Amino acid sequence: MKRYKCTISYDGAQFFGYQIQPNKRTVQEEIEKALANLHKGLHIRVTASGRTDTKVHAKGQVIHFDSPLSIPIHKWPVALNSILPEDITVVDIKNTDAQFHARFDAVSKEYRYFIYLNKVRDPFKRFYTYHFPYGVDLQEMEEASKLMLGTHDFTSFCSAKTETEDKVRTMKEITLSKENDMLVIRFVGNGFLYNMVRILVGTLLEVGTGRREASSIPAIFERRDRSAAGKTAAPQGLYLWKVDYE
Amino acid sequence: MKRYKCTISYDGAQFFGYQIQPNKRTVQEEIEKALANLHKGLHIRVTASGRTDTKVHAKGQVIHFDSPLSIPIHKWPVALNSILPEDITVVDIKNTDAQFHARFDAVSKEYRYFIYLNKVRDPFKRFYTYHFPYGVDLQEMEEASKLMLGTHDFTSFCSAKTETEDKVRTMKEITLSKENDMLVIRFVGNGFLYNMVRILVGTLLEVGTGRREASSIPAIFERRDRSAAGKTAAPQGLYLWKVDYE
């Protein structure tokens, strides 16, 4: 058995998220089906760096799996891509040591959230951005984003359904960049809770439209209550961009 | 009754082309349904600059229609977009004189064809570009494209099923531009026949991969036979970009 570290990209529009569920099309199931096909029916379990929700995309999701096959390493992507559906692509596969774990070994993750600001919607962007035509004050949003940096208890900024006990995470970077009508918010942190990026974005948009003050962010953290923060922004604007390991 | 000139954009992925057909989802049907809704059931017929095929996109298709309603002109796009499905957007509506005709008055059209050259497919581009990972010689393609300019009988470069008698058209511009792995071929002409851009692109790609000489183009025109030209390139790379009127 050899262990492989595999980077995949997927268009989340037609998936009920990453994780396998009965009777729903998921990324994990499609990958395990493709691997079973390659292994003549043998079930190969894959482990990802984390889940992504329905309609959420990935540019650089990382998974690991073990295989008894002796396919030369450079042939793995071609072999898998020829079986996988077109909305999942294997970008890279590397040999890794038998202890490597896609989830536990991740030291940092990057998410990007795409917001389309034009007054008129664009049919080509409907599955790939969040259309927000209401006008935003970027300076206010940037000020608020700075108050989200550092180590905090993110209880207010994750779904009330979050099962993880420890909700302390460190946000290393948040950058806002706007090109024409596309605003991209980039989040880099050591870990992210359920719906965390989407709630941070929803809150930033409420600051951007003047419904909250940038200076109100510390008080939201202190409340440790989901209802203190803004709405959960739409899933189709979110991309798991990159997972970093040591 | 007032006549309106309306510019629309649509993602062709989920349409069986522009023109109404029984039991198939088409752009024209969705627009006429939206107009009927706005007119309390009154059927308003729309006329486009021309058809587009299944999976082909439009950034600037132009249609005209007549309406008895007296909606202020700036409210028309909002009114229609709130009814239309998300894969069609009204970009602009203007009042026009009662003689304006979206098809007969068009003096020039621009199409763009998007070719994704990266070796590895991209799940986000599968409905919006043609993936062509085989390597192309751009200089050869450019040379061939120059021989397609001017006034020609395009019989070899249109579907054998084309019903139009007169197959003489004038190609005003063809430009190739490559940014990273995306090659865009832009065609501007006074009129285009059925499948014409896709057959021109298919032929250019055969030149680009060395299966034809650039210098063979004039002989293809002379043959006046569809089988003399290259394959019809895939529909999802094609966009009706712009229609010009006097």
UniProtKB/TrEMBL annotation, chains A, B:
Organism: Bacillus aquiflavi
Keyword field contains NADP: no
Active site: D53
Purpose of the protein: Formation of pseudouridine at positions 38, 39 and 40 in the anticodon stem and loop of transfer RNAs.
Assigned protein family: Belongs to the tRNA pseudouridine synthase TruA family.
Protein name listed in UniProt: tRNA pseudouridine synthase A
Top-tier EC class: isomerase
Residues that coordinate or bind substrate: Y111
Complex and partners: Homodimer.
EC number(s) from the headed UniProt entry: 5.4.99.12
Keyword match Nucleotide-binding: no
Catalytic reactions of this protein: uridine(38/39/40) in tRNA = pseudouridine(38/39/40) in tRNA
Domain Pseudouridine synthase I TruA alpha/beta: 9-105, 144-246
GO biological process, one term: tRNA pseudouridine synthesis
Entry's transmembrane regions: none
Keyword terms: Isomerase, tRNA processing
HAMAP family hit by this protein: TruA
Source organism, top-level taxon: Bacteria
GO MF entries: RNA binding; tRNA pseudouridine(38-40) synthase activity
CDD domains found in the cross-reference section: PseudoU_synth_EcTruA
